[in-house]
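User: Run a structure prediction on this.
Assistant: Running it now.
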Amino acid sequence: MKTWKRNLIFGILFTLTAGSLAHFFYEWSGNNHFVGLFTPVNESVWEHMKLVFFPMLLYSVFFCLKNKKDVPCIGPALCFGILLGTSLIPILFFTYVKAIGRDIFILDLATFAISILAAYAAIYKLSPSCKLKPYGSLLCVLVGIYAACFFWFTYHPPEGLLFAEPTSAFFYGR
């Protein structure tokens, strides 16, 4: 169980680091379309959700393989954590922007960190209890749907606030 907790802490650090670096991968790659499927291609909130989703998904594969014997219900908890952390990005961002009327870089960073911490806290709390085991398949399918949406919407974004650049008049309603 100690190893499991240590791996969980490492997951937080991995996701924070990989997600922070991923913000720049698309530009560093010379705007490579394949890299853009997994990293932000613009400054929209939707694209920034990838900063939590893909690093957590990558780490979850490792984490699940490494801890499956010690924590048999880890899979559904990891899927739930990925969905929670990813979904908190727009919830927290739009809440604070609505409250103060603009985005602030330090609050963007806090949104990112809080989303990751909440995701891993949920994994920590839910894994040993097996409460999510009956929903494991559904949670995995939802993670797959999120991934498919990220791939499709990267280069075919629909209209809407979630997909708008924060600097646009549409975003701030001006």
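The radius of gyration is 16 Å.
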